[in-house]
Structures are given as C-alpha cells and as structure tokens.
Amino acid sequence: PRLLRWWRAIPLDDPAERLNAAMLQTVLALSVLLQLGNLALAWAGPIGINRVALGMSVLNVAALLGCLVLLRRGALAWSARLFIAASLALLTVAYLLWGLALQAPQQLLQLVPVLIGGALLGRRAMWSTVAWLAVLVAIGGWRDATVFVSRPQQLMLVGSRVIGSIIGFGLTAFVLDQALASLRESLALAR
Fold first, then answer.
1. HSE of 56 in the Cβ direction (CA atoms, 13 Å)?
2. Cys staple from 148: which of 99, 107, 139, 154, with CB 3.0 to 4.6 Å?
3. pLDDT above 80: residue 92
4. CB-based contacts of 10: which residues, under 8 Å, 6+ apart?
5. What distances in angstroms separate CA 136 from CA 35, 59, 106, one per listed residue?
6. Are 139 and 95 a contacting pair, CB within 8 Å?
7. How far apart are CA 139 and CA 184, in angstroms?
C-alpha cells in the first residue's frame, strides 16, 4: 500500500494528466525492466555483448530513469519529450549501424514513442515521430540492400520490408490520430 501510494502520487493537478502520467510511468518502468532484462540475457549468453550495443543500453536506461525523475517532479510533457527524443536517437544509431533486418523484431516496441507522442503531446509530435521512423526504416533498408546488390530476390524482400514497416507505422498513427480526434470531438460535444 505504501509503495502504491507513492506510485500514484505524481504532483499534477489535472486528473486527466495524472492518468496520463500513470500510464507513462508504467511504460517507463517496464521499459527499464525490459532493457535490464535484455542486458542480463546478453551478458549471460554465449555470444557476448557488442560494446556499442552495451553503451546504447546504458544510455537508454539512463534516459528512461531521467524521464521517470522528470515525471515524478510533475514534468509530464518534458518526460514524454525526452522519452521520444532518446528513443529516436538510439534508433537512429541502431538503424545506421545494423540496418532494417535486425530492427524488424523490435518494431512493435518502436511504436511506443509514436503512441506516447500522440496520446500525450499531440498530433504534430506523433506524425513527426512517424516521419522520423519512416526515414530510419528507409535508411535501414538501404543499408540492408547494399549487402544484396547482386541478389534481386533479396532486394525485393528488403523493399517489401521497408514498405510494410512504413505503412505499418503510418496506419498505426492514423488509427490513433482518428481515435483521439473522435474522442476530443465527443468531449467537446459533452461540454
């Protein structure tokens, strides 16, 4: 009960903002746990840890903890902005270094900054995040394609992944955008 009271005690006056803060706090805490779990698995695994990936993981945990500190001090928007900026910065490095194929299994998680942007910061933040991700997917696809220049079938597969990923990010954002617009309209009518 004491921990639960502390968990819920985010210094925001608006009840809707408190609910949004609770959601973001949960996302941040679970993201820290996921990152630490992935680090532990990589550390214990037979392959070892790439130093760049290790550095990125440490930076990610630090950014997530920074977001939590901001949030616990009542800075909901700044916490969300830092989360999105740090996520996009780390994804930029990952797509540049490792391409699209290695990022594909994590693309569902890469939607979280899009969802946070749309839910907490508005349409511009959401669509800017989608645009950034689309560019990263294209860059990652280009990097993958350079390996398969002499294999047309593989190039087709890379092209299909690029198009599918970009459309997936766009459709997710579109659905969220329309749902939030409908919700705002309903709330305006109810007032």
1. 18
2. 154
3. yes
4. 18, 21, 22, 25, 71, 72, 74, 76
5. 21, 19, 14
6. yes
7. 35
* The two three-digit tokens of residue 11, written as one number: 């210094």
Backbone angles phi, psi at 182, to 5 degrees: -65, -40
Asked if residues 29 and 6 have their Cβ atoms less than 8 Å apart, the reply is: no
Q: How confident is the model at residue 46 (pLDDT cuts 50, 70, 90)?
A: confident
The Cα 25–Cα 12 span in angstroms is: 13
Taking Cα atoms as reference points, which of 82, 90, 84 lies closest to residue 52?
Answer: 90
Give the pLDDT score at 117: 93
Give the tens place of pLDDT for each residue, 129-155: 999 999 999 999 999 999 888 888 888
DSSP H helical ranges for the chain: 2-8, 15-44, 51-72, 76-98, 107-110, 112-116, 123-147, 152-190
Q: How big is the CA angle at 116 (ends 15 and 118), to the nearest 5 degrees?
A: 90
